[in-house]
Recover the amino acids of this structure.
């Protein structure tokens, strides 16, 4: 039974594991990066349009979220995806609280 190793098993012996995203084979890493870049570009366009509090209250839902929480969420999710902590919700919550002052000035 010890001789039942396949060629693939033998070729893996002694090889160094590749530090690759577990989702790379599905193309998710590139898709996520593209989505993040598109959202950042969209946010930068929206950020140029400084709106006062009254205007924020009258915005459609998507525009309101783009102006207020999407930028910090995108950054937080990007860091979360790179670091992959064991408790992602707590990590994201801590990130949002730690970095909120950087984004509050933009609103």
């Amino acid at each position: 039974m010890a001789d039942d190793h396949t060629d693939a098993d033998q070729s893996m012996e002694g090889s160094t594991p590749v530090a690759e995203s577990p989702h790379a084979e599905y193309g998710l890493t590139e898709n996520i990066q593209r989505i993040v870049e598109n959202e950042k570009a969209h946010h930068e366009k929206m950020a140029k349009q400084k709106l006062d509090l009254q205007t924020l209250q009258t915005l459609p839902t998507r525009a309101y979220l783009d102006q207020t929480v999407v930028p910090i969420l995108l950054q937080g999710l990007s860091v979360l995806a790179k670091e992959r902590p064991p408790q992602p919700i707590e990590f994201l919550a801590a990130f949002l609280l730690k970095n909120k002052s950087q984004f509050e000035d933009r609103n």
